[in-house]
């Protein structure tokens, strides 16, 4: 089984949530591996994969060294489509899918961490062959519309989604927008991971939980709710 971990925004706690969720699956007796669709702002070994392994309490795996668990790694910290372009590369979703398939053959649970939020572009229009005429802005002539969005690629795979959110200011809006996008595409929501970091005033945290739980119970019956405590990384 494959689960896709995403979040309402970048830096919302996806990597911590992925590692903790994978550890729970391991404790249930599953053979588990995590992977990252792509990582930007990093060179060498994926920082997020290292975080996963530390939280899972295991060393790096041969699949990590081979690159199967992070097929794309780019040094410039930006949306993956831009980071890839600046590195002279193009993200090929079929390559990511091949890595997932290899991992699925050896593990009964594959937890796939996304990159950024749900609507981040994986490719640009030019890379997917869609024609678009865009006026020059500041002398830079580039297609402005995205090609393949992360959410649409995940929807094509049919993977259950786990959405990471929190009580920080703005989370209700971002969470409901994410849930609406998931629901509109008919994607299965496996569950919500509520990140308790950064800490929020009690009234705000309680209200955020209530609002999000209400929408989840209405639109995604059976989805789990998991509280993610503040995790101290040594």
From TrEMBL:
Biological function: Catalyzes a mechanistically unusual reaction, the ATP-dependent insertion of CO2 between the N7 and N8 nitrogen atoms of 7,8-diaminopelargonic acid (DAPA, also called 7,8-diammoniononanoate) to form a ureido ring.
Family: Belongs to the dethiobiotin synthetase family.
GO MF term set: ATP binding; dethiobiotin synthase activity; magnesium ion binding
Protein name (Swiss-Prot/TrEMBL): ATP-dependent dethiobiotin synthetase BioD
Keyword Transmembrane: no
Catalytic activity: (7R,8S)-8-amino-7-(carboxyamino)nonanoate + ATP = (4R,5S)-dethiobiotin + ADP + phosphate + H(+); (7R,8S)-7,8-diammoniononanoate + CO2 + ATP = (4R,5S)-dethiobiotin + ADP + phosphate + 3 H(+)
Alphabetical list of HAMAP family matching this protein: BioD (MF_00336)
SUPFAM superfamilies recorded: P-loop containing nucleoside triphosphate hydrolases
E.C. designation(s): 6.3.3.3
BP GO annotations: biotin biosynthetic process
Keywords: ATP-binding, Biotin biosynthesis, Cytoplasm, Ligase, Magnesium, Metal-binding, Nucleotide-binding
Residues reported to bind ATP: 11-16, 48, 113-116, 195-196, 229-231
Residues forming the catalytic site: 36
Cofactor: Mg(2+)
